[in-house]
Specification:
The chain is α+β, with helices and mostly antiparallel strands. 15% of the residues lie in helices and 34% in strands. The protein is built from 1 helix and 8 strands.
Length: 153
């Protein structure tokens, strides 16, 4: 009887510890495997990149690499000046896990500030990059012209 009582108390203590751990993790999302994600869980993310023509080439704000903690459609807000063959302003979203990318530019007639919808895959690694080059042949070129991108969900 003492052995049963001892084992029962150990089992109850273990059950209580697991229950407390499960309650403390409620509402969080483990992203190690897509099967873990449940549709009723809310996750969020926010990534911002910016490039100015006078930035250093390896400026840390120009690019961000991240692992997606969500799947499906997300919002990409862009501010990209009109395309110019020398300045080449653009934003790129690359899927480093599966390969492939989407490049966003602004052509005449398109809004320089706009919102796009892109699809992310849970657990995939992505790189969001903003880019613009200076125009060395135009001394009056606006050096504060920039490319901005915000990815959020």
């Amino acid at each position: 009887m003492k052995k049963i009582a001892k084992h029962l108390s150990l089992c109850l203590a273990l059950f209580a510890a697991v229950t407390v751990k499960a309650q403390s993790n409620a509402g969080t999302l483990e992203t190690s495997h897509p099967a873990v994600a449940e549709k009723n869980q809310v996750v969020s993310g926010y990534y911002f990149v910016a490039a100015k023509k006078d930035d250093q080439p390896n400026d840390p704000y120009r690019s961000v690499t991240f692992v997606s903690n969500t799947y499906g459609a997300v919002t990409l807000r862009l501010n990209i000046p009109l395309w110019h063959s020398v300045k080449q302003p653009y934003v790129t979203l690359e899927n480093l896990t599966r390969g492939g990318y989407q490049r966003f530019t602004t052509w005449p007639g398109e809004a320089t500030y706009r919102t796009e919808t892109v699809t992310l895959q849970l657990g995939d690694q992505y790189r969001l990059t903003a880019s613009i080059q200076p125009n060395p042949s135009d001394p009056n070129d606006d050096i504060d012209e920039d490319v901005l991108a915000t990815l959020s969900w």
